[in-house]
Predict the structure.
Amino acid sequence: TVKKSALSDFSNPRKGGIIAVTLLDDDELVNVIMTDGSRDVVMVSRHGKAIRFAESDVRPMGRSARGVRGMRLEEGDAVVSMDIVDDNATLLTITENGFGKRTEFGEYRTMHRGGRGVITIVTSLRNGPVVNVKAVVSDDEVMLTSSDGIIIRIPVKDIRVQGRSRQGVMFMHIKSGE
């Protein structure tokens, strides 16, 4: 589900907070991004699917609204993240087993929201499911943290750009159960 609200809807916060979105019991908020209202959005699921659609396909809603379908998911799949498309950036995809890659945004055609999307990374036994995506530029650096507290820092320029249907390369050695 995706939702668009005007920033002015949040200009008078209360002591106890204000409702930003209505979530179902099994829902989770994965990302909030401020935009100018005319950009493309990319949403990515755990099973390695991504959908790119125009932000204008989502009508503005009130604070308590639930939102509209952004991406149709397979059984057992879930959206892990979303970001704004930037033609000067690439989409960095990271999987649970420490693999990842960068992909040019031009490889993701614009669709209507609510579709199933296209493969963004192969989620095999080797890779595991997708855990996060982020739009990055070559000057950026990323830090990856494992559940055991191991941290690595990688310059984005050292991460190879690959096509959508590739498995990526190992960023971090992950032990069993980590």
